[in-house]
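Minutes, project check-in
Item: structure for the 252-residue chain
Input as provided by the requester:
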Amino acid sequence: MALPRPTVKSPPASRPAGKPFPVIVALDLPSASAAERLVERIDGATDFFKIGLELFAAGEGMQLVERLAGRGLAVFADFKFFDIPATVGRATARIAEAGATFVSVHGQDAMLEQAVAAAGTTGVLAVTALTSLAPRDMQELGFSCDVRGLATSRARRSVELGCAGAVCSPLEAAAVRAAVGPAAAVVTPGIRAEPAGGDDQIRTASIKDAITAGASHVVVGRPVRDAADPAQAVRNLVEQAEQARREISGRA
């Protein structure tokens, strides 16, 4: 029997007064100790971090979620769950118990419904289309629509099912924002300080372009992780984000 449709949770999609724009730093590192060293080097320039599959596979992802959340930091558990619905629900419950702010889930309606039902106060983000997908990949996977159409359809449906929002590339952010409305979280990875090249994320954009398109949160990995001064790199990104927000407010 289908679960009842929940109401959409209110995510931290808009910036509270006095709080900087939420730049989420991806802790894409081989060990929890390396990830925690990066958190220390960032030195409070942001309080939001993403933990992904690399640390999960290293056997340290869940413990790191708990430790960072226990310090009052916001954590996006980007584990991209995709399994039978009951398993996704139980896994989501564990993430919620660990104190994550967001958790990402792939999948069809039943998976998302189970995740939302188990998530408690943790926001479920639907993965719409990976930033590595190219038009050729869409054809090979059997989709008749383009990436934007897929992302928009999945985002709209996920919010109808009670998800806090969706993850999409900056190139789809405007279409996704139009589909999900102003309250839902639109989280965009693939943020680059310079034109992309030489890595596996092909649908990328600047932080200004992402925010102008409607992103509520941006995820930044390489430009911070590989910086000589990660804290300054984050401060620069936050300032760029704030400038974009001021420009948007000025046009309103």
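Outcome recorded: The longest strand covers residues 74-81.
No further action items on this chain.
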